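User: Let's play a game. I give you a shape written as tokens, and you guess the letters that built it. Ready? Here's round one.
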């Protein structure tokens, strides 16, 4: 993998201009699936240094709506760029969908088509709480199967991505980078992409690693599990995996501020 250790970013003073952290959640903020006390402490430390944190996750709209108001963050983007929830409770649909019930029916039809080719696909339990995308479990799917699913979705006029937790059927053009750029423009006009660090751990974070959008990106160490699957790789990688790696980055940001 071409990414450099985070220590290189520190040595090059790359973190000093950061005013906003845009981070994935599962496998990036969590440690063994849980949020730690240490994570809450570093999120508060970032906030106290006037460094905003946005969570950019594949989690459902229903789940993220509550999360955005419970953590010391500026807001959260759900469904891989589909919808934004500000800390004050305001929400914005980032993907233009006129008929949400009809949209859900179309997604269900695409999933049914995928099941004809892969009968063992299991719909995720959080689908009733989603608006813009449709999810099914990634467990048990091979790299070859994931590639086939992506190609089939494209044939049907939809996009596809996956994380360490779920697979996502989503509208074309909906991804984390586009959602984040939209939120920056609407809610953080003083924060250009040059003062943002993006953080992630898996293929659905790949757009956040694209240097055409964000020059400063960091993968927590478990991103190395996807070495052969990422076209765009993070510029830097932490020494520790998961939430421990994010805390490593957060402490470096606080120290460099």
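Assistant: Ready! My guess for every position:
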């Amino acid at each position: 993998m071409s990414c450099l250790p985070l220590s290189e970013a520190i040595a090059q003073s790359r973190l000093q201009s950061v005013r906003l952290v845009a981070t994935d959640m599962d496998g990036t903020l969590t440690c063994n699936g849980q949020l730690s006390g240490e994570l809450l402490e570093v999120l508060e430390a970032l906030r106290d240094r006037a460094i905003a944190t946005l969570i950019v996750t594949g989690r459902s709209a229903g789940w993220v709506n509550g999360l955005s108001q419970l953590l010391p963050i500026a807001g959260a983007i759900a469904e891989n760029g589909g919808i934004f929830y500000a800390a004050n409770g305001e929400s914005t649909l980032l993907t233009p969908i006129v008929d949400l019930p009809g949209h859900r029916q179309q997604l269900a039809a695409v999933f049914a088509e995928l099941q004809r080719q892969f009968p063992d696909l299991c719909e995720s339990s959080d689908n009733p709480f989603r608006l813009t995308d449709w999810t099914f479990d990634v467990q048990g799917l091979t790299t070859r199967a994931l590639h086939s699913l992506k190609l089939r979705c494209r044939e049907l006029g939809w996009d596809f991505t996956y994380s360490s937790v779920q697979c996502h059927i989503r509208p074309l053009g909906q991804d984390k980078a586009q959602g984040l750029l939209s939120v920056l423009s609407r809610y953080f006009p003083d924060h250009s992409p040059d003062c943002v660090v993006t953080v992630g751990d898996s293929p659905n974070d790949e757009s956040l690693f694209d240097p055409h959008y964000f020059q400063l990106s960091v993968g927590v160490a478990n991103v190395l599990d996807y070495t052969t699957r990422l076209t765009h790789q993070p510029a830097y990688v932490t020494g520790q995996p998961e939430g421990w790696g994010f805390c490593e980055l957060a402490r470096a940001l606080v120290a460099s501020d």
